[in-house]
C-alpha cells in the first residue's frame, strides 16, 4: 500500500526528470544555434574571400590592358618618328640634288677651258646660274619679303633705325636694307628695314 511519503518521492523524481529534460532541450537548441552561427560565419568569410579574389583579378586585367596599350603607343610613336625622319631626309636629298646642278654650272663658269673671252659673256652666264638657283628655291616654296612702303610689322620686319620721309607715311617701311625670306607661312629671315617717322617738322 502506497504511503504519503512514497507519493512525495515520486512527485519529486518526476519534477527532477522534467527539469533535466528541459535543460537537455535547451542545451540542444543552444548547440544547434552555435553550430548555425559557425556556418554563417564560414559562409561570410568564404564570400569575402571570393569577392577579394575577383577584385584582384579585375585589377590585374586592367594592368595587363594598360601595358598592352602603352606598348602599342610606343610602337606607333617610334614608327611615326622613323617615317617623319625618312620623309625629311628624302625631301632634303631632293633639294640637294637640285642644288648640285647649280654647283656644276658654277664649276663650268669658273673653269679656264670654258671661260668667256668677254666679261659681258661671263656676267651673262653668272646671271643665268643665279636665275636657275632662284627657280629651285621658288619651287621649294621660298618667297622674298621685300616690304617697301608697307606698314611696319614686327612679325615680318626688323627695324634697324627710323627716319623722316616726305613720301612714306609714319610707321611704314621707308627702305629695305636686307630682304627677308619665308617658306609658305614660316618666316626664315626677317627683312631688315628703316621705318618712317612721317614728314619732318
Q: What is the compact description of this entry?
A:
This protein is 64% helix and 15% strand.
Strand content: 15-25%
How many helix segments? 2
CATH topology of the largest domain: Hemagglutinin Ectodomain, Chain B
Architecture per CATH nomenclature, i.e. the level-2 architecture of the largest domain: Alpha-Beta Complex
Helix content: 55-70%
Strand order of the largest sheet: 1-4-5
Structural class by SSE content: alpha+beta
- Shape category: flat
Report on the architecture of this protein:
The chain is an alpha+beta fold and 201 residues long. It has 2 domains: 46-140, Hemagglutinin Ectodomain, Chain B, CATH 3.90.20; 143-201, Nucleotide Exchange Factor Grpe, Chain A, domain 2. Helix content is 64%, strand content 15%. Strands 1-4-5 form a 3-stranded antiparallel sheet.
Amino acid at each position: 500500500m502506497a504511503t504519503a511519503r512514497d507519493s512525495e518521492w515520486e512527485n519529486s523524481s518526476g519534477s527532477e526528470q522534467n527539469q533535466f529534460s528541459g535543460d537537455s532541450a535547451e542545451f540542444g537548441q543552444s548547440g544547434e544555434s552555435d553550430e548555425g552561427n559557425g556556418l554563417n560565419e564560414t559562409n561570410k568569410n568564404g564570400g569575402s574571400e571570393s569577392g577579394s579574389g575577383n577584385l584582384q583579378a579585375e585589377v590585374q586585367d586592367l594592368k595587363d590592358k594598360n601595358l598592352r596599350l602603352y606598348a602599342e603607343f610606343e610602337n606607333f610613336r617610334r614608327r611615326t618618328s622613323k617615317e617623319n625622319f625618312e620623309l625629311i631626309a628624302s625631301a632634303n636629298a631632293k633639294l640637294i640634288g637640285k642644288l648640285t646642278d647649280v654647283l656644276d654650272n658654277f664649276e663650268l663658269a669658273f673653269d679656264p677651258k670654258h671661260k668667256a673671252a668677254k666679261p659681258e659673256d661671263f656676267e651673262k652666264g653668272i646671271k643665268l646660274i643665279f636665275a636657275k638657283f632662284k627657280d629651285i628655291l621658288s619651287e621649294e616654296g621660298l618667297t622674298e619679303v621685300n616690304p617697301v612702303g608697307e606698314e611696319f610689322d614686327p612679325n615680318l620686319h626688323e627695324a634697324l633705325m627710323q627716319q623722316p620721309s616726305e613720301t612714306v607715311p609714319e610707321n611704314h617701311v621707308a627702305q629695305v636694307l636686307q630682304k627677308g625670306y619665308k617658306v609658305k607661312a614660316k618666316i626664315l629671315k626677317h627683312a631688315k628695314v628703316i621705318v618712317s617717322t612721317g614728314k619732318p617738322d
